[in-house]
User: Fold this.
Amino acid sequence: MFSSVHRTLARIRAVFQSSDLDRDLILELESHIQNLAEEHIRKGASLEEAQRLARIELGGIEQLREAHREVRGLPLLDTVLQDIRFAFRIFRKSPGFTAVAILTLALGIAANTTVLSWMSATLLNPIPGVAHTSDLVTVMRGDRTDHPTPPFSYPDLRDLSERTQTFSGLLGYHDDYMSLTGVAKPERIYGALTTANYFDVLGVHPILGRAFLPEEGTLRAGAAVIVIGYAVWQNHFAGDPQIVGKTIQINRHPYTVVGVAPRDFTGCAPGLRTELWIPVSMDRDVWGFNRPDYRGIFWLNMLGKLRPGVTKNQAQAELNLLMRGIAERFPEDHRDSPNEISLDPLWRSPFGINGYLYKILPMLLGLAGVLLLLACANVASLLLVRSVGRRREIAIRLGMGASRKQIIRQFLIESLLLGLLGGTAAIAITVWTSRSIVAFFPPSSLPLTHDEHIDQRVLFVTIAVSILAAIISGVLPALRSSSLPVQSVLKEEASSVSLTLHKSRLLKGLVVAQISLSLVLLVCAGLFTRSLQKAQQSDPGFEASHLLLASYELSPAGYTRATGAAFDRLVLDRLSALPGVESVTLADFSPLSFSIHSDYLQIEGYVPQPYESMEISRAIVGPNYFRTLRTSVISGREFTAADTAESQLVAVVNQAFVDRYWPGANALGKQVTDGGDRFTVVGVARNAKYRLLTSPTEPVIYLPNYQAYSPTHDTTIHLRTTGDPLTMASSVEETIHQLNPELPLFNVNPLSVTMQLGTLFGRVAATFAGSFGFLAMLLAAVGIYGIVAYSTRQRTREIGIRVALGAEKEGIYRLVLGQGFRLVLAGLVVGTALAMVFTRLLKAQLFGISEIDAITFATVGLLLAIVALLACHIPARRATRVDPMVALRYE
Amino acid sequence: MANKTEILRGTLDLMVLQALEAMGPLHGYGIAQRIQQISGESLKVNQGTVYLCLVRLLQKRWIKAEWGTSENNRKARFYSISKAGQKQLNEESENWQRVSETIGRLLRLNENR
Assistant:
């Protein structure tokens, strides 16, 4: 069968060597004729007669050449290549048109590939370093909120893991910062306590050493072993090839390095960079708890690998059954929270960044799709207008016997080339824009990471989208141009085929489409922007300006509960004495940075519904917290330095807490139990937002730091200054280092900067919807200008006649402008209707405004109308300057 | 029944291969002459079709082509059979023989009835 392969290859080669092969054939045929003729002469024929006979015997040379070409090459490829060469000639003839068309398509495509590149890097590649994530699911227990807390206790996880038939493995992990100590400069690194099967379930193989052994996960073993990330290995241990077996220190406890994770792998919480892994049994050494011992402490996130052939629903049903059994056997431990299990694929894992992105990115992709459609309409109208200029060329080709199919093919190949060139440009743009999402990450306490590369998936989709865009924008002009009335085009001139705005329904439709699509995008942009504004202007319940934050962590530095509390006291004393400091306090979190903790509470006088979650936000704060944050205390008092371990245990709750649990009652004096300690409420504070500006206010309980003291969490200094908070940064650092030169101070930033994290997704949405909207308006303006200007030029003669017959300039102006205006109006009406349907999808993402916000619709409509009229104004003005003499001679 | 040109094309391929096998390298004119000689008037085709056949055979790598000078000092392209071509020729000849024998037997059977 090689001969057929050879033949195909030879045919393809022949297409590219066409002229050489043709010349060879002619040489051969000529010599053949001569030979034949000589033969006839020998037989006695005259020279002429001999040549005539020779030609008859050989057969028609032209036919032969044609047949030869068909046999040796690929006729279709041949003509397509011809069409491509022709298209490039056409492009070179009108570089301006070509550039505009390519740029327009490039912008439309790039908007899509940019969003796609983010989707690909986050939703579609949720765990870098793990190739196959389709059979991995996150396991959630209880209510689904936008700030889920780890849902499983270690004994529950172990029981589920031992009994499940639908999962080949269930892993658990708890991630938080750890400190690499025992080195010159201790460093905080995000790490995880994991079950022993962690790496096996994910299918990740350490590049050096090994993963955890099953026995290292069992409780009492207390295996002090660690797997370190590639970056830690490189940066802190200089890539030491002998690292396995060596001992390193985490939070001042020694661990034996047993493995180094592969370079790409950064843990299994999407968007968060984990770089150290230690078995869960080491909880006491790392974070000072014994959480694995308790069935009632929920602190582990769970991830499972489905057995082949098992569906998500089957697995969910099974886990629910198992969980119900566990809850029945240990009712005490499971009463405080719902036990309903839900499974999620990793692209919408509630843990990590995907929980937010999976709602926003598809929406942005939808907007980018609208932009692409608009770009297509734009290019279609350009192609259409230009095809009129080429009607003679087309008519001649049709007249010479070209089929309609050939004309359509030529046109489609031209637009296909435009699409592919646009796609190439789009990839170049995307290389740059795919990184842009990182610019939205503020300095934050979260180890946010973003994998910024354009992968094959994105490239493939870009090509597909380019082709699609080319077909969408090319098909109408192609169909239209191929059905020219050949006779009239060749005989008369413009009048019979001219494509003017008042005649061509297609051209009108394209104008209306451009206006309406750009209105849709502008409305979305407007809604997101207004929503973000509303969020940023909304009262968070504290005053962010003039506040400097700085954090330290005492436990890795060797502090105990007693020495830590003493240190905190010193810090507050010293800092409040600094000049320029109005007041200062401490807290175990900072507002709007996803850092507030929560706890399970028992509330006096409140009887929870069965399985109602009593996990409530719990802030541990220092004296003067409310004064420093300027959150007013509505009744009672705030914490003072006198609230110590020796005095009565006290708490402050917010208004939402009172409304939720003690509606209508006096909260002061009531008691709340947290972890066995009873706190008496001494104050009620105004509501403040600590998670997202856009989420509803939720109950919060505040406990004084000297009473609920834990040295294992970060402590964040909140410093209210009289001037610019950043100018205080160095003196704060100095003060801390005077107290302890070894203690690292991190995340030194104004609160106004760090709280940007709380609007991260709103800003991403507003910025991108905004740029899409701006581009849309620009494209629509250019498109309308092009069409109106063109169709006015087509009517030069008519306008000339009107002027010659005495029409006023004003009348001409109104004629042209009115024509454009009617279409703009139609576009606005259609666009408004479309937008009202489309914005319904955005509803959940909007804050403080309705999805049919009248102000947004009106402003955007007016803006678009003005821009569109401006685009019509220029050609209308030009029309008034038509000189009738010139115009009449023109054709 | 397969269409006539298919058979003709196959036959012509075989005849060209046979000509090159028997005569050694030939140019297009030579091949055409040889075929006409052998087939007499029974296969009178446009001589030009030989060139279409030659392209096909070249593409299948059953023959090779080289530019050279003809006996009357003209630049000409000489074709010769390749190893693959010889193999093909053998297979095809056997095939033809089998077919013609079978058909012959069939026709004789019909005569005898």
